[in-house]
Design brief:
CATH superfamily of the largest domain: HUPs
Distance between the termini: 24 Å
Strand content: 15-25%
Helix content: 40-55%
CATH architecture of the largest domain: 3-Layer(aba) Sandwich
Order of helices and strands: EHEHEHEHEEHEHEHEHE
């Protein structure tokens, strides 16, 4: 059986170098193979077109042939561009210390391709935007939103330039997903040597403090230095404010849920945090 790998989506966007660097870091931390994936999206880079049914073109064989040749040439150029792109990030990953990084190039749709590879993926690393999003500021790419909603693997979203993570903040709400997140933080070598901040949004009551203390003790037994905090306020602003004030390198949070606090993560809050932070987010399902 193939060992689950770190899968990094490379597309030529401004975030591709950071995606490569975070994926290389994760591969080394986890001791997992690294695969760098480039997808030639058929909607952006179609293959040879069948124009024979177009009105008025059926009898113009020479024009059809020229158009088909142009499509074929464009497809070859896009494949070659992707190959060179993958060669560059392979060398970048090797320079970071990854042994034998692999590359894949697929022709299809990004979301479908990533889901096809889900069973052999341990961690997906992807940029906040695709190549088409480089001119849109910090808006979240539509492909990313679809992947977050459908994939059942942890997703590390690269935002901003690469900085080797030394600290992590878990947005904790005592839901099943974030309790699982505590266990993942405790057990995974991904976070080895990092300081951990557990942040809960809401009123500081005994009912809130008890599970937070239990989570802190679990992580401390695993050898981590842990800081816990409960802050009242609006979820998005509290989490982003805490991250900035404490210079946190990575945020870990559940992407979706139904608890009193996690309901805020459905839709707008996840999107707003992705838009506003310049640090990577690890999203749990």
């Amino acid at each position: 059986m193939t060992e689950p790998n770190v899968l990094a989506c490379i597309d030529g966007s401004l975030s591709s170098e950071a995606v490569c660097d975070y994926a290389a870091w994760a591969s080394l931390q986890l001791g997992a193979p690294l695969t760098l994936l480039h997808v030639l999206d058929r909607t952006a880079y179609p293959g040879v077109s069948d124009l024979s049914g177009n009105i008025g073109l059926g009898s113009r064989e020479h024009l059809l042939n020229e158009l088909a040749a142009l499509d074929e040439k464009r497809g070859k150029l896009m494949r070659e561009q992707g190959r060179l792109m993958l060669e560059a990030v392979i060398e970048r990953a090797r320079a970071a210390g990854v042994v034998d990084p692999q590359s894949r190039q697929r022709h299809g749709e990004l979301v479908e391709t990533v889901l096809e590879l889900e069973t052999e993926t341990r961690l997906l690393v992807i940029g906040r935007q695709g190549e088409e999003g480089d001119t849109l500021g910090q808006q979240v790419g539509s492909h990313l939103e679809s992947i977050i909603r459908t994939m059942h693997r942890p997703i590390l979203v690269a935002a901003g330039d690469y900085r080797k993570p030394q600290s992590v903040m878990l947005a904790f709400d005592n839901s099943a997903t974030t309790r699982k997140g505590v266990e993942m933080l405790a057990d995974s070598p991904l976070f080895s040597g990092m300081s951990i901040h557990l942040v809960m949004v809401g009123a500081d009551t005994n009912d809130s403090r008890e599970p937070l203390n239990a989570a802190q003790q679990r992580l401390e037994r695993a050898g981590f230095s842990v800081v816990s905090a409960i802050r009242a306020g609006e979820v998005e602003s509290v989490l982003l404010g805490y991250q900035r004030d404490n210079n946190i390198d990575m945020i870990v949070m559940g992407a979706y849920g139904h608890s009193r606090i996690r309901q805020f993560f459905v839709g707008s809050t996840t999107t707003h945090i992705l838009q506003k932070t310049n640090r990577p987010l690890l999203l749990l399902r």
